[in-house]
Write a structure and sequence with these properties.
Length: 86
């Protein structure tokens, strides 16, 4: 599953720099996660870094984006390959 940031977000700015895929950005009111860039840190870390640093625990798994570890690893490979080409 991709992750999502709920309305409980306090805009503390700690999650955005922790994302190795640059999937987190400021939305109209709170931070948002681009599900096409989110790998839950698969390929980078053992656990999602945004969840680890969030002081209000407002970053659950998105129940509307059921994804296996294999799908997340494939996305990681695509994203890192694109960075090497750029």
């Amino acid at each position: 599953m991709a992750l999502l940031i709920t309305d409980d977000c306090i805009n503390c700015d700690v999650c955005e720099p922790e994302c190795p895929n640059e999937a987190i950005s400021m939305g109209p009111e709170i931070y948002e996660i681009d599900p096409n860039k989110c790998t839950e840190c698969v390929g980078h870390f053992d656990e999602p870094q945004c969840q680890q640093v969030c002081p209000v625990a407002c970053i659950p798994h998105d129940p509307n984006r059921i994804e296996t570890r294999e799908i997340l690893m494939d996305r990681y490979r695509l994203l890192t390959a694109a960075k090497r080409v750029a």
